[in-house]
Amino acid sequence: MQAIAEKTQQEELRRDFENEAEKRYAKIIATGETVSWKEMRGYLENYAAGDTAAVKPPVKKLGR
């Protein structure tokens, strides 16, 4: 029984993840706004290291 419950929970989490990804992708398509992964990764690494003054990377239009 526990295995079934765990599998069900995993499937629910996966579905939630996929729904969130679809929602975010739709927003990118609708607005054309993206953030460079290289810049965002640097920001997140700095922020995670305690640099709360880290500046978020700028939003750019898709394909530029």
Q: Can you describe what's shown?
A:
- Strands 1-2 form a two-stranded antiparallel sheet.
- The model has no long low-confidence stretch (mean pLDDT 95).
- The N and C termini lie far apart (52 Å).
- It has 2 domains: 31 residues; 33 residues, no CATH class.
- 0% of the residues are buried.
- With 64 residues, the protein is mainly α.
- It is built from 2 helices and 2 strands.
- The chain is flat, with a radius of gyration of 17 Å.
- This is CopG family transcriptional regulator.
Quick rundown:
The chain is mainly alpha-helical and 64 residues long.
Based on secondary structure, the structural category is mainly alpha
β-strand number: 2
> How big a fraction of the residues is strand?
5-15%
Q: What profile does the largest beta sheet have?
A: 2 strands, antiparallel
Helix content: 55-70%
Weakly predicted, low-confidence segments: none
- Given the C-alpha coordinates, what overall shape results? flat
Order of helices and strands: HEHE
Please give the radius of gyration in angstroms. Answer: 17 Å
